[in-house]
Design goal:
Chain A: It comes from Desulfofustis glycolicus DSM 9705. The complex is a heterodimer of chains A (193) and B (249). Chain A contains 5 helices and 9 strands. In chain A, helix 4 links the parallel strand 7 and strand 8. Chain A is elongated, with a radius of gyration of 20 Å. Chain B is of the alpha/beta class and 249 residues long. Chain B has 2 domains: 103 residues, Oxidized Rhodanese, domain 1; 97 residues, Oxidized Rhodanese, domain 1 (3-Layer(aba) Sandwich), CATH 3.40.250. In chain B, the strands form 3 sheets. In chain B, strands 2-6-5-3-4 form a 5-stranded parallel sheet. Chain B has a 4-stranded parallel sheet with strand order 9-7-10-11, sandwiched between helices. In chain B, strands 8-12 form a two-stranded antiparallel sheet. Chain B starts with a helix and ends with a strand. The chains are: A alpha/beta (193), B alpha/beta (249).
């Protein structure tokens, strides 16, 4: 166990440095324009569904808040819940959720809360924490890329990870990725988004 | 974001693309270490702890670090604010991982390590300081987040010194009946705020509090949405730091 983090840090770091010098980690602009558009659409199509990120939940006030949309257009909605609300355990701050609700008098009431599961594009396979740990442990040649904004990456990132926020990759494309297109690329971010 | 990036890479012709959907939270939950970038170690608002057991700190240490051995760390754990981001380094990865696990177990949510420990820092050509350590006092102060009011300013409002400010207590009627209410404060429970908006003056600045800040944060967003100039108090009001005058039941 001892020192293996140190060991694996070196080859990955070299790779990271090469990539970073190509211009990573400068752009800290906020992300996910597409998500914003799709959330806004969901809003229009079905007014009784909110899809977004849970802001908070108060059991004392039996209230849950959800942020729909991103950036300047984000809207936070407050809904009541009660013992009949299903899936209240999915209302965890920071988690992506889908809330079905109805108007009862002056209050919006959450009827059902579901986690919003992220899907990967076609041809991209999922990797779980144990397999990723093994790959890192075995010094597997790869690029591990953190898609979160620079400030979050700076605080805490996975061993050997480079920072590739979505706007940066969108702009720089191949310049911030390895030359060999068969290199294993693993992307992660702050959870199911 | 994982999906967006993976999709981009796929479009650019990369053949071996995978997504770790659990992300950083799942990694940390599984007990694995995370690392702070060197820039953040140098400039971030953190508590930086040097875990090396000997007198090495005199010969060189990372600027702003506080030397604490594992034993001292365990003894002084309550000196470190629970909400402070803590960054650890040492010369023995087992020690560092032990301290990392201990802090996480004690409820510290933001704990990270320095890549390569002290040796790695020096090898990267990063600055060090030398000489005796005169104080191991931990002086971390949280920076106010968006929409937060400072305790000092909030206290002034409850003392009636800010006539242009309207203070809302978002707790339930039961909590107030049991614990009392601050002076110069109006009680509107969080869930009643949307329908009692007409009781909240538009021409005043609004401060809002609850028992710990969680409900106040939600109420803050609701009021911002409705065009109010509002700030919320993020503090456990039973904390002696609050020290605001209370009307007891």
């Amino acid at each position: 166990m001892k020192n293996h983090w140190l060991r694996l840090g070196i080859p990955l770091t070299l790779l990271a440095v090469t990539l970073l010098f190509a211009g990573c980690a400068r752009d800290t602009a906020s992300v996910a324009q597409q998500e914003q558009a799709s959330s806004a659409q969901t809003e229009k199509q079905a007014a009784a569904v909110y899809t977004g990120s849970i802001v908070g939940k108060s059991n004392k006030a039996q209230t849950v808040s959800i942020e729909v949309g991103k950036g300047a257009d984000a809207q936070t909605y407050m809904l009541k819940f009660d013992d009949d609300t299903t899936g209240i355990e999915h209302a965890e701050p920071g988690e992506a959720a889908i809330i079905n609700w109805e108007q009862r008098g002056e209050d919006k009431f959450a009827v059902d809360i579901k986690p919003k599961l992220a899907t990967l594009p076609e041809g991209v396979t999922e990797i779980d924490v144990d397999e990723l740990y093994q790959l890192i442990e075995n010094d597997t040649p790869m690029v591990l890329a953190d898609a979160r904004p620079e400030s979050r990456y700076n605080q805490a990132h996975l061993p050997g990870a480079v920072n590739l926020p979505v706007p940066l990759l969108t702009e720089k494309k191949e310049a911030v990725l390895p030359k060999d297109k068969d290199t294993l690329l693993i992307f992660y971010c702050g959870g199911f988004t | 974001m994982t999906g967006a990036n993976a999709g981009l890479a796929k479009k650019l012709g990369y053949t071996n693309v995978r997504g770790f959907l659990g992300g950083e939270p799942a990694w940390v939950k599984a007990g694995h270490p995370v690392y702070a970038s060197y820039d953040y170690v140098e400039k971030g608002n953190i508590v930086l702890i040097d875990l090396r057991p000997g007198g090495e700190t005199v010969e060189g240490r990372i600027p702003r670090s506080i030397p604490l051995t594992i034993d001292e760390l365990e003894r002084r754990i309550n000196d470190i604010p629970r909400n402070a981001p803590v960054v650890l380094y040492g010369d023995d990865q087992d020690d560092v991982m032990y301290a990392f696990d201990e802090l996480r177990w004690q409820g510290y949510k933001n704990v990270s390590l320095v890549r390569g420990n002290y040796e790695g820092w020096v090898a990267a050509g990063k600055p060090i300081v030398t000489g005796p350590v005169f104080s191991t006092e931990i002086k971390w102060v949280r920076k106010l987040g968006k929409g937060e009011v400072s305790v000092e300013e909030f206290r002034k409002a409850t003392l009636g010194q800010l006539p242009d400010t309207f203070v809302i207590d978002a707790r339930t009627d039961e909590e107030i009946a049991q614990l009392g209410i601050f002076k110069n404060t109006v009680n509107i429970p969080l869930d009643e705020i949307p329908k009692r908006m007409d009781e909240i003056p538009k021409d005043k600045r609004i401060f809002i509090h609850c028992s710990t800040g969680a409900r106040a944060d939600l109420a803050y967003r609701e009021l911002v949405k409705n065009g109010y100039d509002v700030k919320f108090l993020l503090l456990d009001i039973s904390d002696p730091e609050c020290d605001c005058p209370i009307i007891r039941p």
